[in-house]
């Protein structure tokens, strides 16, 4: 499956997990490792049919929401699937294999289409957990394409090697419970040298490493739109295997030492070591960035979920010294967020207290440009609730202007509807119609929005 399609399926799985408010640990428990689930969600690895079905059942969604055959395999007719049933997913892949078998017999099939069928076929075999069959298909395909020089040839070979690396990783996972590392403290960091594997697991990992490395060499400097993304996937495969063999970072450091030692006597060998180190570091850098982004997103979600806790943190910070302009702005917006949170929970007394504290701080020369729309929107809602209709209109219109400045039409419409509610409560239907016409213009609905609202 092309990278963007793997990513699409992984994104759907991740969205379903987040909608159920499950962590990766909770979603993966009893089904697979957290790392396997992470790879699937990030579009970097395959999920077997059974795993797809079990995940669908756990997350309460339809498996065919993740695997839309018409999207993934556009040349094949779709097969209906029931909710969360691995059986129907399996039957889909069997249908895919049957369809490919028919298409492969067509002597007029173009080379690009035939190559695409090989990639689809090996993916389907892997999804069905037919590892031996996938391995045989890949070895034959690589032998057929080996030695061809065009960018498309190299890209195709690299994709085959990527798939082959996945096959060997699968084989290593199968034997991990039966065969333990023969050397205490982990395997040698020279496992990439021929003949260094000392157990079935090590041998599978060595083959996986070599497959990823061969693919990486094909696309590392290839001038092709798909080459960069494919090189990232291959580098990630290398680092996964290296982690399984004792740690990608320590192996990278050892490769640099080996390159230094070999540079005088064998420059080609030194270059080989450096290329492997470069590929591993490429993945490590991306992984580190992903981890940093993930941590940052989790922190933001934590703050969004509990703005009152954030307000307490801000209050604790600003008490450590004199109140500067930046601290004042942080406090205003933190009070506003806490007020919005309380209002949504119908804790109106606390809403009013937070808004009053924010309003007092605004009165000390803080420019409106630094105040978020949250303050004005929440103030408009609270004023409307308290019967302070003029104040509600005033704040709703400021919220509207801010939303317009930031090009957020939906929020601008919501602010206008708040103003219209206030005008309507005052009995000023004409003004309510005017602001709703503005809202209608934003939504391209014109007069109908105003008319419908007034007649409600």
Strand and helix map with partners:
Layout: H1 3-19, H2 24-28, H3 34-41, H4 49-59, H5 63-66, H6 69-72, H7 86-104, H8 111-127, H9 131-145, H10 151-175, H11 200-219, H12 227-244, H13 248-262, H14 267-305, H15 307-318, H16 325-344, H17 348-362, H18 373-385, H19 389-405, H20 409-425, H21 429-442, H22 447-455
Helix pairs in contact: 4-7, 7-8, 8-9, 8-10, 9-10, 10-11, 10-12, 11-12, 12-14, 13-14, 15-16, 16-17, 16-18, 17-18, 18-19, 18-20, 19-20, 20-21, 21-22
Write a structural description:
This protein is mainly α and 456 residues long. 73% of the residues lie in helices and 0% in strands. The chain has helices at residues 3-19, 24-28, 34-41, 49-59, 63-66, 69-72, 86-104, 111-127, 131-145, 151-175, 200-219, 227-244, 248-262, 267-305, 307-318, 325-344, 348-362, 373-385, 389-405, 409-425, 429-442, 447-455. Helix 4 (49-59) packs antiparallel against helix 7 (86-104) and helix 21 (429-442) crosses helix 22. The radius of gyration is 30 Å and the shape is elongated. Residues 1-6, 68-85, 177-195 and 445-456 have low confidence and may be disordered.
Order of helices and strands: HHHHHHHHHHHHHHHHHHHHHH
Strand content: under 5%
Task: Work out the radius of gyration.
Answer: 30 Å
> How far apart are the first and last residues' alpha carbons, in Å?
52 Å
Secondary-structure-derived class: mainly alpha
Poorly predicted ranges:
1-6, 68-85, 177-195, 445-456
Name its key features.
456 residues, mainly alpha, elongated, disordered N terminus, disordered C terminus
Offer a concise description of the structure:
The protein is mostly helical and 456 residues long. Helices cover 73% and strands 0% of the residues.
């Amino acid at each position: 499956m092309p990278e963007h399609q793997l990513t699409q399926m992984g994104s759907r799985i991740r969205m379903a997990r987040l909608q159920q408010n499950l962590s990766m640990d909770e979603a993966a428990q009893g089904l697979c490792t957290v790392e396997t689930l992470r790879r699937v969600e990030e579009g970097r690895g395959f999920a077997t049919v059974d795993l797809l079905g079990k995940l669908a059942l756990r997350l309460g969604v339809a498996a065919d929401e993740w695997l839309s055959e018409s999207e993934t395999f556009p040349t094949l007719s779709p097969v209906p699937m029931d909710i969360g049933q691995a059986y129907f997913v399996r039957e889909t892949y069997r249908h895919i294999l049957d369809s490919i078998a028919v298409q492969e017999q067509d002597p007029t099939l173009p080379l690009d289409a035939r190559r695409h069928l090989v990639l689809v076929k090996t993916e389907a075999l892997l999804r069905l957990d037919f590892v031996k069959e996938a391995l045989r298909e890949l070895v034959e395909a690589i032998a057929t394409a080996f030695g061809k020089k065009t960018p498309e040839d190299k890209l195709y070979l690299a994709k085959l090697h990527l798939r082959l690396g996945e096959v060997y990783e699968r084989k290593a996972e199968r034997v991990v419970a039966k065969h333990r590392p023969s050397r205490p403290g982990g395997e040698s960091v020279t496992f990439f040298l021929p003949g260094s594997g000392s157990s079935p697991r090590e041998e599978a990992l060595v083959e996986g490493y070599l497959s990823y490395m061969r693919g990486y060499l094909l696309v590392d400097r290839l001038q092709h739109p798909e080459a960069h993304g494919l090189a990232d996937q291959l580098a990630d495969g290398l680092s996964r295997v290296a982690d399984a063999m004792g740690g990608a970072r320590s192996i990278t450091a050892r490769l640099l030492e080996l390159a230094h030692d070999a540079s005088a006597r064998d420059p080609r060998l030194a270059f080989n070591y450096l290329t492997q180190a470069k590929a591993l570091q490429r993945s490590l850098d991306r992984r580190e960035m992903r981890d940093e982004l993930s941590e940052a997103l989790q922190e933001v979600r934590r703050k969004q979920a509990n703005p009152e806790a954030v307000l307490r943190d801000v209050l604790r910070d600003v008490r450590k010294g004199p109140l500067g302009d930046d601290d004042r702005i942080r406090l205003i917006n933190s009070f506003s967020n806490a007020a919005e949170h309380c209002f949504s929970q119908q804790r109106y007394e606390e809403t009013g207290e937070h808004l009053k504290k924010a309003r007092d701080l605004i009165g000390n020369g803080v420019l409106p440009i630094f105040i978020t729309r949250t303050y004005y929107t929440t103030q408009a809602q609270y004023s409307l609730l308290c019967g302070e209709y003029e104040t509600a209109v005033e704040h709703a219109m400021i919220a509207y202007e801010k939303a317009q400045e930031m090009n957020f039409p939906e929020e601008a419409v919501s602010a206008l509807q708040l103003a219209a509610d206030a005008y309507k409560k005052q009995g000023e239907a004409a003004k309510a119609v005017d602001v709703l016409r503005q809202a209608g213009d934003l939504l391209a609905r014109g007069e109908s929005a105003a008319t419908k609202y007034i007649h409600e």
